Amino acid sequence: xxxxxxxxxxxxxxxxxxxxxxxxxxxxxxxxxxxxxxxxxxxxxxxxxxxxxxxxxxxxxxxxxxxxxxxxxxxxxxxxxxxxxxxxxxxxxxxxxxxxxxxxxxxxxxxxxxxxxxx
Length: 119
Known about the structure:
The protein is of the alpha+beta class. The termini are far apart. It has a 6-stranded mixed beta sheet with strand order 3-2-1-5-6-4, with no helix packed on it. 15% of the residues lie in helices and 46% in strands. A hairpin with a 5-residue loop joins strand 5 (88-91) and strand 6 (97-101). The chain has one helix at residues 2-19; strands at 27-45, 48-62, 68-74, 78-82, 88-91, 97-101.
């Protein structure tokens, strides 16, 4: 009896793992535009409440049906590659994101603000 129960459990678990979720579903879309910003996340009631800043990338992409859609992904779950002439985004099954953009698309700035400490 134990052997039959174990066999049934093994078959059911195999079916769930194989059919329940496509864990390799990484989807690529044409990237239309992209910017970085901070998303306010929290609870508000007539201007009062708590919030925390979550840095995100906002981007427009062209969906499979040709529609242009707005989305955002957290910066800490995203990477940017400057490696293509035709920009695209890959949204991975685990909600990480790969942005592939043309070389020199990322604006590089350096700003040092050193106060005169006197001599």
